[in-house]
Design goal:
alpha+beta
């Protein structure tokens, strides 16, 4: 009957419109989720959420430290503040020195990495994750609060539990955040915000 055919065509049109609408809105879902988190959570709670849900997949994307002299801007994160590019790097290094403020580890090309053990300042850690930007927040204070919360978490969870067992000569598998200036020579000592530190089985203090 004509009316049944008309109903069938109408249903197909409705289904097609719904599918088209869903396809159109699939891409921004992460942005909508992020906006909801920013409205609902405090800066500290936001870090808690990302630490639980996004830390593991973020660390998997870390780039080998051997490539640090050849990194492109597209491989890192650029923030709204300053002109630096932020990267997550990974490697295995020997501890060259330990003092009350930092660990010094060996890097390729006779460079060293400096990992803080007591105080971690700045936005290098949070900027390297790409979890959020300063302009996602209502004000800079909230962004800095989220950054400080992540920095403190890295010191408490990543660094301090391992610190007393480390000695010069130990080997570490590590993942850390760095800030680099595009087009500028790499510094002799690279400041690294540690996201992961694992003492290798061959280390002196683990034997």
């Amino acid at each position: 009957m004509p009316w049944k055919r008309l109903i069938k065509i109408s249903l197909l049109v409705v289904v097609g419109l719904i599918a088209l609408r869903l396809a159109f809105y699939t891409e921004p879902l992460d942005k909508h989720r992020e906006a909801a988190l920013l409205e609902t959570f405090s800066p500290e709670q936001l870090v808690d959420y990302h630490w639980e849900h996004d830390l593991a997949p973020t660390l998997v994307k870390a780039l080998p430290v051997e490539r640090m002299a050849f990194l492109s801007t597209e491989e890192g994160h650029v923030t709204d503040i300053g002109g630096k590019v932020y990267f997550l790097l990974k490697g295995t290094s020997t501890i060259a020195a330990i003092n009350q403020q930092s660990l010094l580890i060996s890097l390729p090309d006779n460079r060293h990495g400096r990992l803080p053990v007591k105080l971690l300042f700045g936005n290098t850690a949070v900027a390297s994750t790409g979890w959020f930007q300063a302009n996602d927040f209502a004000n800079t204070m909230d962004y800095n609060a989220a950054s400080a919360s992540l920095n403190q978490r890295l010191l408490e969870i990543v660094v301090k539990p391992l610190l007393d067992s480390l000695v010069v000569g130990d080997r570490l598998d590590w993942v850390g955040a760095v800030a680099l200036d595009p087009g500028q020579p790499l510094p002799a000592i690279l400041d690294i915000a540690p996201f992961q530190l694992v003492q290798t089985a061959g280390s002196t203090s683990s034997q």
